[in-house]
């Protein structure tokens, strides 16, 4: 799926997240980035109001894809190998932004925080009812996660954009995975892998004191 490609199949995207773990419970970079690219394609259908979000996600995906096509690509095969390689070689700005403003570790940390938002949002979408407002579900999930890392101006812009989200039933229909009930069931199937990826990444970053990278 290319950047900015507006064709998407959310079922495939969420299945891609399922394929992120290898048998050593390491997170494979390529399907992780593929999953994000699919989400961005879906986001692009939500209107130009989200283009500032989409651009930021695309630029972070691109940074990681550049690592994956560089001479050092093997070190970026999993999140675990990336952390070990970058730390061993002093390639991460640990305290303040300096020589490595776009290290793999800090770039993945931004996507990882966004994955927490996604997890909360999908869970609330799944368990809400037809009366619930998607915009409010999204605002609540955002405030409980990503917003804590964003300055006032981004929080304001994000909140305004969330009000443009369609009603819950339209949103679920836009997912194009069948009926509303089927879309809800698909969220239930996809969430455990997203939670697992989030938890493994969180533990990896906590173990190496990387959760506050500038
Ligand atoms: C099955 C249902 C599907 C739900 C579909 C969700 C689609 C979401 C697609 C992409 C999510 C966007 C991920 C955004 C990554 C943001 C990373 C970040 O925090 N970046 C900030 C910090 O970066 P640095 O400056 O330190 O490099 C950056 O400042 C942020 C800029 C843009 C604003 C980010 C707002 C994030 C809101 C995320 C919610 C998206 C709303 C989607 C609504 C469906």
UniProtKB/TrEMBL annotation:
Its main location: membrane. Keywords: Cell membrane, Cytoplasm, Endosome, Golgi apparatus, Lipid transport, Lipid-binding, Membrane, Nucleus, Transport. GO terms for molecular function: ceramide 1-phosphate binding; ceramide 1-phosphate transfer activity. InterPro entries: GLTP_sf, Glycolipid_transfer_prot_dom. It is a peripheral membrane protein. It is found in: Cell membrane; Cytoplasm, Cytosol; Endosome membrane; Golgi apparatus, trans-Golgi network membrane. It catalyses: N-(hexadecanoyl)-sphing-4-enine-1-phosphate(in) = N-(hexadecanoyl)-sphing-4-enine-1-phosphate(out); N-(9Z-octadecenoyl)-sphing-4-enine-1-phosphate(in) = N-(9Z-octadecenoyl)-sphing-4-enine-1-phosphate(out). Residues 27-176 form the Glycolipid transfer protein domain. It holds the Pfam family GLTP. One of its GO terms (cellular component) is endosome membrane. GO terms for biological process: negative regulation of autophagy; negative regulation of interleukin-1 beta production; negative regulation of NLRP3 inflammasome complex assembly. It comes from the Eukaryota. Belongs to the GLTP family. This is Ceramide-1-phosphate transfer protein. It comes from Salvator merianae (Argentine black and white tegu). The lineage of its organism: Eukaryota, Metazoa, Chordata, Craniata, Vertebrata.
């Amino acid at each position: 799926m290319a950047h900015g490609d507006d064709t998407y199949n959310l079922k495939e995207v969420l299945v891609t997240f399922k394929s992120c773990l290898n048998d050593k419970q390491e997170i494979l970079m390529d399907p992780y980035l593929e999953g994000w690219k699919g989400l961005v394609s879906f986001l692009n259908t939500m209107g130009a109001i989200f283009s500032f979000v989409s651009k930021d996600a695309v630029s972070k995906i691109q940074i990681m894809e550049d690592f994956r096509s560089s001479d050092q690509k093997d070190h970026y095969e999993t999140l675990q190998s990336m952390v070990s390689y970058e730390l061993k070689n002093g390639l991460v700005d640990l305290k303040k932004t300096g020589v490595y403003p776009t290290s793999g570790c800090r770039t993945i940390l931004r996507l990882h925080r966004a994955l927490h938002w996604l997890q909360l949002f999908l869970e609330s979408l799944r368990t809400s009812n037809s009366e619930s407002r998607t915009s409010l579900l999204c605002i609540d999930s955002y405030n409980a996660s990503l917003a804590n890392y964003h300055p006032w101006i981004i929080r304001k812009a994000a909140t305004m954009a969330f009000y443009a989200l369609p009603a819950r039933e339209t949103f679920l229909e836009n997912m194009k995975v069948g009926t509303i009930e089927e879309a809800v069931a698909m969220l239930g199937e996809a969430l455990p892998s997203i939670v697992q990826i989030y938890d493994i990444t969180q533990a990896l970053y906590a173990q190496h004191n990387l959760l506050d990278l500038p």
